[in-house]
Amino acid sequence: MKGLEHTGLIHAEGPIVIAARTETVGYGELVAVRGRDGGRRIGRVVETSLKAVAVQLFAANTGLTIDETSVEYLGKPLELRVGLDMLGRIFDGLGRPADGYPEILTNEFRDVNGAPINPAARVYPKDFIQTGVSAIDGMNTLIRGQKLPLFSGNGLPHNRLAAQIVRQAKIISTEGAKDEPFAIVFAAMGIKYDVARYFQDSFEKSGVLSRVVMFFSLADSPSIERLVTPKSALTAAEYLAYEKNMHVLVVMTDMTNYCEALREVSASRGEVPSRKGYPGYLYSDLAALYERAGKIEGSSGSITQIPILSMPNDDVTNPIPDLTGYITEGQISIDRELFEKGIYPPIAVLPSLSRLMKDGIGPGMTREDHKDVSSQLFACYARVKNVRNLAAIIGEEELAPLDKQYLRFGERFEAEFLLQGEDENRSIGETLDLGWKLLACLPRTELIRVSKKLIEQYLPRAVENAEAARAAGVEV
Question: What is the DSSP string of 5-35?
Answer without folding.
Answer: EEE--SEEETTEEEEE--S---TTEEEEEE-
